Amino acid sequence: RTAIRTRAMFGQAELPFFSDRPASGETARTIVLGDRIVPYTLRRSRRRSIGLTIDQRGLRVGAPHRASLTEIERMIFKHASWVASKLDEWRARRRPDTPALVDGARLPYLGDWLELRVIQGSGRAVWAPDDAPTLTLMPRSGEETAALLVKALRHKALRLFGERLSFQAERFGIAPPRFALSSARTRWGSCSLKTRIRRHWRLIHGEPPLIDYVIVHE
Questions:
Q1: pLDDT (tens digit, 9 = 90+) per residue, 155-170?
Q2: Distance from chain centroid for Cα 174
Q3: Phi, then psi, of 142 in degrees rounded to 5
Q4: Closest CA to 166 of 176, 156, 157
Q5: Lower Cβ count inside 10 Å, N or C end of the chain?
Q6: d(CA 176, CA 173)
């Protein structure tokens, strides 16, 4: 399968709301292993071989300066089962992170960053005009903030994914199939005769090519 790479890191096994920037000398990338989109951190050094490690931060790859991305990803593909198993083990151990949904916070959005404005209000979420990457949340109480964010992102994902699905269907000369959003724990997309196409709403954190990959795959 073709590996799809993105600029933003999404966490170890699932997309959290926020992501940490890689340390100096490290590059954040993603790779598609089966039906999983796996983020990894690449660090090049004077080492002689490619090495894979997995800890609470996720998959980390050390590689010589001379190693090509093809060689690096071939090594990851070779150990795909081990990678998936270890990531699942760490996810089971880890307590879920509680995102700090405060005014000025940022989260990945379509391969860029979405800035949040949080002010007390009437329980609404308002996108900036012209789809600028700013979202204003107006919760009636602090407990409502996360729910407003998820609702706003799901609404945006439903519209954007529908547009991308129609575009890709036209390319293949077929009618756009029925689709719905998903909140699955381990799958970014699925398809069946009964449910048709389902896509995880958190894909809105990824770049458009990543979203298109899942659409075309399904």
A1: 999 999 999 999 999 9
A2: 27
A3: -60, -30
A4: 176
A5: N
A6: 9
